[in-house]
Amino acid sequence: MSRVRGFISFEGIEGSGKSTQVKLLAEYLRTKGHTVIETVEPGGTRIGNKIRSLLLDPENQMDPLAELLLYYSARAQHVREVIYPAVLRNAIVITDRFTDSTVAYQGHARGIDLSLIDTLNEIVVPDMRPYLTFLLDLDVEEGLRRNKDAGKMDRFEQETVDFHNLVRQGFHQIARAEPDRVKVVDSSKSKEEVSKEIIRTIEEAWR
Ligand code: TMP
3-205 has which CATH code? Predict the structure, then answer.
């Protein structure tokens, strides 16, 4: 699977500051003259947003396999409706979460077989992976506290601290396996410091 130069993803546990950093990076790249598409998973399309509501509704008791397949339904639509067309016209696509979230949440934390997730990736996202992935790393309790203070309480935020620690460990495992693609950034720093580090990393990687 080849890494696409203009495709960047952000990953991390709840409250790790991904959406803020997506915006800051997009603003920076626009000042450099790039066309930038900011997007999010699950979501990014009309259908994806409907699936997102199902996935995050705290009233839903969801079977893990149903959950996995809904993420891939949203992703199939997102990749074909938004990501591929944008990449083809040489825009930069920055996504808040992508396939690493599935490996960390549904694989490492829910316990679904990682080879099944690999197979779904090959079917749904053939021949494309992000050029760079920023893993915003933060203590789980700190991240959950940040989201609680912001009034965010969806189906995943209701999971235990142990669940979120499995997610965090899953992300670290991915980063260890693919150090060229996945860059770990300490997200306990100020948003300005985190943003500077991200911009520095991108400029080096694109040089
Ligand atoms: P967000 O709140 O960061 O937008 O993400 C939505 C939730 O969905 C978050 O708790 C992580 C979860 N998620 C998965 O479990 N698997 C996935 O593949 C993706 C993209 C997100």
Answer: 3.40.50.300
